[in-house]
Write a structure and sequence with these properties.
Four copies of one chain form a homotetramer. The first copy, chain A, is an all-alpha fold. Chain A has one domain (7-215). Chain A contains eight helices and no strands. Chain A starts with a helix and ends in a 7-residue tail after the last helix. At the C-D interface, helix 1, helix 2 and helix 3 of C face helix 1, helix 4 and helix 5 of D.
Chain lengths: 219, 219, 219, 219
């Protein structure tokens, strides 16, 4: 009873931080006001800001959905979990800054654009590390309601790490080509939105997946 | 039990995002400080900002009331609903930016004022699309506690879509006359605040309405 | 059951808006950075900002405590209550803007300081109107768990209105003397923080008070 | 029942304020945009901002964990507690301002850097005072589920006060050497993150500690 309440306060605080971070993304969207050229022209020039807003909004939204799914499998909360969760939130809160920076520099298409996109990718890498650390924590002790059998740990880890590796790849690619890296980061968001749990997949994978992610019916 | 908790976390996150977005509206309200002319004069010149603040505040407030009423009819949450909800929130979070832009440009009464008001209307169109998508989702499967009979779906849809169509009309009108469009958007807010559920209306409509909107006593 | 959840979502949303508004107060606190004179000097010149921050913080805090106490007496939520609550929040959200303006202008000690302080007082008048409207709503129908007997309505109203009248007085005084008005608004906050429910007062007043405000033991 | 709900709204509001404050920290992180020198160079020059962000983020996070642990021991909420909690939040909300100021001035390494770091330390001193006041409140009356025996009060107080005294020391040291004070504040955060409850310590201390802080298993 007490433990359930703990988990619910962990969720409430995380929801609060994620909700503020996702809303602060829109602070990047501004126009200079009257006397700084045609409004339509200003809005047109800000296309990277709008695109980065949409990508970051859905990426943070996906984090929220997955955080939700992972945390609700947890039976007991300890201090280690609270600090791993803070680590995840530390990077989530950086995303509006990274989004703003990539929006400012992307259309420059120069060295600064590459640095800005690498920073953007790195903020998602950090977030993946925080999320994977929480997942790793759930694999040990008696911390979740339905623990994964040890022989499935590596399959489940592989799944988590592969998502993070795409961001690592995007961050490295950013140092050579900002636009390609930016497109990859956008495609990851699109992929996760339309991703479906393989319902008729073989048992092992399905179980690993079910524990690691949301288990909602997809009717 | 588990499912109810899901819904409550969906509500908590949505409440958080809407609460932050509604509060960020006030960031648009600023004066330039000492040395930029009489304060009373500055405040007077900012009338579009104050008016836009009040309209957007109540419009977001109405979204919150209706979101509240719609979500509490839902029995099970799935990933599709979570992403439709993110789509709604994506547009809610854009409203402070659109409000700020219309506040800056409305009194110019030129082409830029028309673009700004169209942007303002478009953010409400987007929000309506998100909200209608969630409503459409509730019509299928066994997702709500008291499903609407199929023969009432079109009446209920018509009701939802009509609200959105007013915003579509306002967005188009904005391209010709910013003030008229702005007044229409304001009147929609006034209409929804004073709107009452028809209590003695004929059965079908009343049922459709009751499912689609808040069902509070109006004593 | 369903009704309790309604009330809890009303509370959660209000808490969210109030929490964001109280935190945004601190955005007023800034210094110009290196190259704009001694930091100690800059901080010293900002005394109105720090003082206004503390006053507004505790005033919003008091609103939250009283809102909490009032809402928990409520049995059923209807649309009217939701919109009266939005009206209250509309003014709460204005307080950071009014605080920022009074902080900018107070030390000017001129006509602008008087306008700014009147604006500051007016934001609290608006908030009092919203709060009194919610209280008035609780007096009618069967909306609270332990309704006040009708013969005690006027005593309870007098109590609510008197708080609001101090803000009306401060707003009018502000037009003549900004500092006096500012001090009055500060003293109201101090008064409410140290105020105690009269425990051995005569029955009628005690009951009216108990319904209208927090009923916590003061041991 | 009613009392539990009270406590839960106190937690919800505090979580909201802390969540917003922790997220606003990231507003300090900005770069000047294209045309203001190499982005990599700008980011490098902002190292104090990034370091201060991480320190403040974890320090607020620790406050949240400890607040959580302390509040859940409480049985009944009264007005005094609500205002002591507001006092704590008043200083929590100041932390983003203090963080931003120290980030702006630290690398100047002059008198202003010392004032900024003292301000930073003082915001944590204020926070410690608020937190200690809440703890002191829990020692009296029948306010917690498992009250500490009176003979253990001083040991528990010593523990709380010692944390605050490190911030007092850092604030005084800041007036002589900004960097040393800043490092101390950072080390306090690191210490609390890795701190573990002494599980096999002698009874008295263990009990005092268990009431004063989180009691999560550390498996």
């Amino acid at each position: 009873m007490g433990e359930l309440m703990d988990r619910s306060r962990l969720e409430a605080f995380s929801d609060g931080v994620i909700a503020v971070a996702i809303t602060l993304l829109a602070l990047d969207l501004t126009v200079a006001g009257p006397g700084h050229g045609k409004l339509a022209h200003q809005l047109g020039e800000h296309w990277p800001a709008f695109l980065a807003y949409v990508i970051s909004f859905f990426t943070i939204g996906i984090i929220w959905v997955n955080h939700h799914a992972l945390i609700r499998t947890i039976k007991t909360v300890n201090r280690t979990l609270l600090f791993l969760n803070l680590l995840l939130l530390l990077f989530v809160v950086l995303i509006p800054f990274a989004t703003s920076t990539v929006a400012d520099y992307l259309s420059e298409n120069n060295g600064d654009a590459r640095v800005a996109t690498a920073l953007y990718g790195a903020s998602f890498v950090g977030m993946s590390i925080g999320f994977t650390a929480i997942f790793e924590w759930t694999l040990h002790g008696h911390r979740v309601y339905q623990p994964l059998p040890p022989e499935q740990h590596w399959a489940a880890r592989a799944r988590f790490v592969s998502g993070g590796l795409v961001y690592v790849a995007a961050t490295i690619i950013a140092l050579f080509n900002a636009i390609v890296a930016f497109v990859i980061i956008g495609l990851v968001a699109v992929y996760y939105i339309f991703e479906r749990t393989p319902r008729h997949a073989d048992g092992d994978t399905a179980t690993a997946t079910a524990t690691a992610r949301a288990r909602y019916p997809d009717t």
